[in-house]
Amino acid sequence: MKFKNVVRRSNVLMLSLEERVIPRYNVLNVMMEKKLLKKRPKFSNVTWLPEAEFLENYVLKNRYYAEELLLVYKGGDSMALKEQNTEHESD
């Protein structure tokens, strides 16, 4: 997020960085990397969504990636999940 965007939307500063802003930013980054979004949504809009609506619209909507996105949202590492799944498949 650019500094000028924070200044323009200073109400974002009222939100918890650790519990809301960073997890949602990380989920959007993973979704963009995997090309699950056609274009990046306005982050200010995403941060103000109620949690249930964010989870429904961005995490659970993508069934194939839902587990990975939920892990990222909860602060986990999506690479660790991939490694864990690979280990189970080789057993």
Report what the structure shows.
This protein has 91 residues and is mainly alpha-helical. It has one domain (3-90). The chain contains six helices and no strands. The radius of gyration is 15 Å and the shape is globular.
Q: What's the gyration radius in Å?
A: 15 Å
* Major pleated sheet: none
Task: Report, as a whole number of angstroms, the end-to-end distance.
Answer: 42 Å
Helix-and-strand structural type: mainly alpha
Output mean pLDDT.
80
Q: What's the overall geometry?
A: globular
Tell me the number of strands: 0
- Percent strand equals under 5%
What's the layout of helices and strands?
Blueprint: H1 3-8, H2 17-33, H3 43-48, H4 51-59, H5 66-73, H6 78-90
Distinctive features:
single chain, 91 residues, mainly alpha, 6 helices, 65% helix
